[in-house]
C-alpha cells in the first residue's frame, strides 16, 4: 500500500472528506510527494491521539466509585 493510499484510508477512518478530496486531486499541491509525507505524519499522530482520548473517555464515563492503582 502506497503512502497516498494510506493517507486516503486514514482520512476515511478519521472522517476528513475535504482532505481526502485534496489528496485525490493532487494538483492542488506544489510538491505532492512532500505534502503526502507531511499529511501521513499528521494523520498518524491524530489517529494515535484520538485512540488515547477515546480510552480516557471510556474510563471516565464508566463511573467507577474510586480510582484503584496497582
Automatic annotation (TrEMBL):
Taxonomy, superkingdom: Bacteria
Protein name, per record: IstB-like ATP-binding protein domain-containing protein
